[in-house]
Write a structure and sequence with these properties.
Strand order of the largest sheet: 6-9-10-3-11-12
Number of helices: 17
Bound molecules: adenosine-5'-triphosphate, magnesium ion
Number of strands: 22
Number of domains: 3
Mean pLDDT: 90
CATH superfamily of the largest domain: P-loop containing nucleotide triphosphate hydrolases
CATH topology of the largest domain: Rossmann fold
Strand content: 15-25%
Length: 506
Amino acid sequence: MQEYLLSIRGVCKSFSGVQVLKDVQLDVRPGSVHSLMGENGAGKSTLMKCLFGIYRQDAGEFFLEGKPFNFTDPKHALEHGVSMVHQELNQVVQRTISDNIWLGRYPTKGPFVDERRMRSDTLALFKRLNIHLDPDTPLHQLSVSQRQMVEIAKAISYDAKIIVLDEPTSSLTEHEVDLLFEIIGVLKGQGVGVIYISHKMDEIFKISDDVTVLRDGLYVGTDSVENLTIEKVVNMMVGRDLKDRFPPKINKPGEVHLSVKNVTTKYPPIVRDVSFELRRGEILGISGLVGAGRTELIQSIFGVRTLVTGEISIDGKLVRNRKPTDSIAHGFAYLTEERRETGIYPLADITFNSTIANIRSYRNKAGFLVNKRMDEDADKQIAAMRIKTPSKKEPIRSLSGGNQQKVIIGRWLLTQPDILLLDEPTRGIDVGAKYEIYQLIINLAASGKSVIVISSEMPELIGITNRILVMSNGRMAGIVDTERTSQEEIFHLATKYLSNTREAEV
Ligand SMILES: Nc1ncnc2c1ncn2[C@@H]1O[C@H](COP(=O)(O)OP(=O)(O)OP(=O)(O)O)[C@@H](O)[C@H]1O
Ligand SMILES: [Mg+2]
């Protein structure tokens, strides 16, 4: 029997003269999970797109069960047992779940699409994967995490020998991640080889058998997970030890800046009677389980949710944020959790994407945009966030997923907001770049801005915040001093108002 299901040898790939893969190799054993790691822009997605027939490599070979192959397009790859969940969702949101799964390979009955069979096939697939969704639901009615689950189900429906998962958990809830890991376990048992890409170290160590690391498009090495530690992987990824994961907290919270009183939202998911104060120069974390109302709380403050009661004051003066333009005028900026869905102008260049939120400030007296200043700011941002790109004139969609995220984060930082609301700011960002983002947040706070950060990563909240507000089932369970708290205390608060009636639906 062939030892490896898939072998990749000597793959090179350039885009308009810039080499992004140099002599890369990878071997995947049957019935194993092989994680592919590396910083944003290291070449992970590009390598997988070469495998899947989206790009044609300039040099190098692929072997499936020992036989050389080269897929000409994704359809070809799928026919030969290789399927892939992409980092960016590419779905037809007006169509139903069934349509999206079977698009292009509808079961037909004579000249007609056999809708009944399509529906029952979808239900059978969902049953296997423990997913509870109605196949007739149009995708635009689903949450991003549900859409991601549909995409995963679709990849599995091809009964492939090799399944590539490129950051599949970026917007999944904890419950859905557990579900996915169970599915991966079953696939392994059937001898499938899974290639897994993620920036979440805990996932990598939980799910992998082997780990391969790329750096700047070069193959660094492969080892089995038992021989690795987080420190070793980070060292392979960035080429040096990262001593501190968090910069020093040099910000000093002062007077009360923002005051939020009795916020209760009108429509579910309900936020009930939340009051707190944010001081000038403070970084306040928001913690809680998925579904606890963290995002909804921030959205109520920013004016995208209707309130039944609630008062918001800035420096003691009452303000009304009925819609986002009100809040922006009051000095708020809001980095949404679903940046890829809502934040990117794919064809426009980096300069446009990073300055658009602030576009008015680039007009001169005659009303014309001053390109020079826009370009300067784009350059500053590329340097500050270490965005990996040959030029600010590149269309944003040619950047790696993590680097696109950095552009969007920088866009909001450039608006010079007084109060910054950040929802999961480091999702999809590699370990090295996370540090740069923490530094930017702390510097902003040190210069007198106030920041609220939602994060599911507890070490991150403890590493950069001054206080942490814990939400539980739509209510505030407490606010703790970061210096004097522990993960146990926060977890305890997060479960304070938990009832079993509000379980996450998948
Ligand atoms: N279509 C393209 N045109 C030009 N450059 C591209 C294109 N696709 C990718 N690149 C470049 O190739 C490099 C590798 O990108 P890739 O998307 O493979 O990174 P990645 O390792 O998946 O990163 P991330 O963790 O951020 O997803 C990046 O510098 C990116 O800008
Ligand atoms: Mg990628």
